[in-house]
Amino acid sequence: MEDWQARVGVALADVPDLLVLNPRRREWDASWRQAIDEPKFRGQVEWELDGLDSADRIAFYFAPDTKAPISLLELGLYARAGRAIVCWPEGVLAQGQRGHRVRAPWRGPGRRSRRPRRAAA
Fold first, then answer.
1. What are the percentages of helix, strand and coil residues in the chain, rounded to 5?
2. Fewer CB in 10 Å around end: N or C, the chain?
3. For the residues of 42-81, what is the DSSP string, one character each?
4. Model pTM greater than 0.70?
5. Of residues 78 and 111, which shows the higher confidence score?
6. Quick count: other Cβ atoms within 10 Å of Cβ 54?
7. Separation between Cα atoms, residue 3 and residue 11, nearest integer Å
């Protein structure tokens, strides 16, 4: 699986006054029970949500080999705040709908980042 978070971190390393919060960490243990009463798991989730709440921009990447239900949930929570940047490579289902419905800056295959026009009511 591609470590896109590390690539974004490297690409943004020279931007002044920028703090990149990456939820991927070496200490993660996949054997942790993913339940709210599991202290280490709960701590990770709370750290991620606190980071999302305080972020000026949030990058979302949808890989073609995953459905990413948690990322879709997070995108739903933060897209309307105007802070989401959405990216995906070729092969991701419903590319056009994601770009249109989230009304966020997006970058799909062969496209520059842009803010979609507001749909007529």
1. 35, 10, 55
2. C
3. HHHHHHHHHHHHH-S-EEEE--TT---HHHHHHHHHHGGG
4. no
5. 78
6. 9
7. 13
34-64 pLDDT, tens per residue? 999 999 999 989 988 999 998 888 888 888 7
Token couple for 115: 């803010």
- Range 15-43 average pLDDT: 87
How many residues are given for the chain?
121
Spatial separation of the C-alpha atoms in residues 24 and 18, rounded to whole Å: 18
Token pair 């943004």 is found at: 12
Token pair recorded at residue 22: 């990456």
Q: How far apart are CA 2 and CA 62, in angstroms?
A: 11
Q: Where are the domains of the chain?
A: 58-121
β-pairing verdict for 84-87 and 106-107: parallel
Residue 114: CA count within 13 A, CB half-sphere: 10
| More confident site: 67 or 35 | 35
